[in-house]
Amino acid sequence: MKRELKQTKDGSYTWFLPELQEHYHSVHGALQESSHVFIEAGLRHWWNLHGNQIPHILEVGLGSGLNLGLSLEEAHARQQSICYTALEPFPPEVSELALIQKDQHWAQTLPQPLYLNPGAWRKAHLLEFCWLQKSLTEWHQEGCSFDLIYFDAFAPEKQAELWTEEVFSMLYERAKPGAVWVSYCAKGAVKRALKAAGWHVEALPGPPGKREMTRAIKQA
Ligand SMILES: C[S@@+](CC[C@H](N)C(=O)[O-])C[C@H]1O[C@@H](n2cnc3c(N)ncnc32)[C@H](O)[C@@H]1O
């Protein structure tokens, strides 16, 4: 899969995927988008709700590792641990990762190489991490439940099969009571599918360049 490195408006980098005609992040600012959606509205919000507990985070679409890197930065700032499972069926090449992570503060504490031993748990300071080379639609992991879900799939126009009531119901089943789901996407059809799957849905102000984002809660 060919990925083209592009600079976004906040100076951070993303990839463009010609095959899908899609960017990995907002062209208005990759770093701003991830910080706003996944860290501010996701991880910080979860810690505000649940105090000093250790969240088990599920990321759908690990890609460059940006959301993991920012989560680890937050964990280091608070001296709190995180447990992180990431789905990524199409891991980028080591050389592509080296370019997108070059000189980026968020990449400093990432486990390296990022994509190693799929399915194995790796430990680092304040982190337990497992990468699964699996599609969300083919993932049948039993016995694991999640506190926080970073839903960072490509847009519904590009990957409609990942944004369905069926998928959101499956995630609801695997979410702990009080769990939080966050995404950059604010489409009405996605919010309706989440609600139909049982999630309590809120629209929040989006990152620069986007009016809204979505957060959903599994009410306890
Ligand atoms: C919008 S990008 C986000 C990437 C990543 N979070 C980042 O910050 O670089 C979507 C990611 O989902 C991955 N993906 C594509 N199909 C998937 C599937 N069926 N299940 C899980 N992830 C998928 C892509 O390979 C890509 O890395």
What is the CATH superfamily label?
Vaccinia Virus protein VP39
Shape: globular
Low-confidence stretches: none
State the secondary-structure class: alpha/beta
* Secondary structure: helix percent: 25-40%
Rg over CA atoms, rounded to whole Å, is 16 Å
Mean pLDDT: 96
Tell me about this structure.
With 220 residues, the chain is α/β, with parallel strands linked by helices. It has one domain (31-217): Rossmann fold, CATH 3.40.50. The chain contains five helices and eleven strands. The strands form two sheets. Strands 6-7-5-4-8-9-11-10 form an eight-stranded mixed beta sheet. Helix 4 (165-174) links the parallel strand 8 and strand 9. The model has no long low-confidence stretch (mean pLDDT 96). The structure holds S-adenosylmethionine (SAM). Residues 24, 60-64, 66-67, 87-90, 135-137, 152-154, 159, 162 line the site of S-adenosylmethionine (SAM).
